[in-house]
Write a structure and sequence with these properties.
The complex is a heterodimer of chains A (364) and B (77). Chain A folds into two domains: 123 residues, Rossmann fold (3-Layer(aba) Sandwich), CATH 3.40.50.11750; 147 residues, Rossmann fold. Chain A contains 16 helices and eleven strands. In chain A, the strands form three sheets. Chain A has a five-stranded parallel beta sheet. A four-stranded parallel beta sheet of chain A has the order 4-3-5-6, with helices on both faces. A two-stranded antiparallel sheet of chain A has the order 10-11. By secondary structure, chain A is an alpha/beta fold. The longest helix of chain A has 17 residues. Chain B has 77 residues and is α+β, with helices and mostly antiparallel strands. Chain B has a five-stranded antiparallel beta sheet, with no helix packed on it. The radius of gyration of chain B is 16 Å and the shape is elongated. The chains are: A alpha/beta (364), B alpha+beta (77).
Chain lengths: 364, 77
Amino acid sequence: MDELRDERIIRGLLSEIKKKARNMVESVKIMEVCGTHTMTIHKFGLKKLLEEAGVEMLSGPGCPVCITPNEIHQAAINLITKKENYILTTFGDMTRVPTQEGSLQTVVPASGSMVKIVYSPAESLEIAEQNPDKDVIFFGVGFETTIPAILLTAKSAQAERIHNYSILSALWLIPPPLRAILESKDTEIQGFLYPGHVSAIIGEKPYRFVADEFGIPGCIAGFEPSDILLAILSILDQINEGKPRVANEYARVVRPAGNEKALALMDDIADTKDAHWRGLGLIAQSGLKLKHKFSRFDAEVKYGLNIVYGAGDLLGCRCGDILKGKISPPECGLFGKKCNPDSPYGPCMVSFEGACLAYYRYDR
Amino acid sequence: MCLGIPAKVVQIDDSQIGKVDYLGTKVKTNFSLLENVRTGDWVIVHAGFAISKLNEEEAQETFKLLREYTLLGEIQE
């Protein structure tokens, strides 16, 4: 495994990237779709090294905490502040996202209600089992990597008749926003670094339209520095040869057809729906909701939530433009000033995978 | 959020619940998203669930390819 971080190998890969990028007219723009890739790229100093080699990396919409619009957070805040004896469970970063009403961490829950941070969706279901006198709502956020685990809890809740459990869904699919980005023409992306763990679930096929319809190369990448550089080399080769495709550098984890068991489970439990993304707006068939047979575990149905989108963004926050690759974090007027890790103003500074936090920590 | 850690399966029961060893720490893991998991397998764990089995052959292929770049790196130094 040492190969993945070996300095000599990384130097070798970078010199090869430089050689190949030199053939291009201008610097090559590649979007890393996944927030975990953003973190690796900044943490290991690859952002600057790649820039010197002629490759510009742009952060994409691959941070689920970042792209979840404030209106869903406000619905969660409403539940926990207005209803007594509710437990709202969610992943840690979600509790720190600021809205006009504050964040889940700062609001005061109603009597007997509370917010609990979980590491796994399975824990949320356990909390529901242990607290039969309370309503437990899992504010479940994630891409295809996390979705099967979240959906499985609805199936288990039904099988075990845990009827005080429901899911407030913030479930996002990765391929639809890529199409939205390519169609918007806001950015001139010449290649995509596809997310490794989303791909472990969905495989290679859902990205094919990027090469077939838009002629844009791409490569599925792992999360170590060498993984990322090897994938960038593949993208440069595809550009030079004029043969865009979906390459897979992370074959040790990603099968071409993905995780078929997890995909079948997703099909069985959820349907796609049009969904609102922060910055990107409404994207057709880009979200998931529980199927009718599981609707008693769908918090939106169970509590009659009517989430209206459009007025939730905080004034001045440019997370939306950052998620589209339109600007980089230092171009936002609030970056590092009003918005910093101790007091984040927008979700891209909250999340461990947010582009703003990555820039703040490693590239200031 | 899509952080996944490679870890070794050390325990698994009939309900597909068990433990992985991650750098010496035993972590409770749900294996029901995978087929035919056995102790000793390496898996990627995300949010308490194993989402993929590691393929040793493919891993060796990648490492072999990477080693070919070592020489290039040395020349540059």
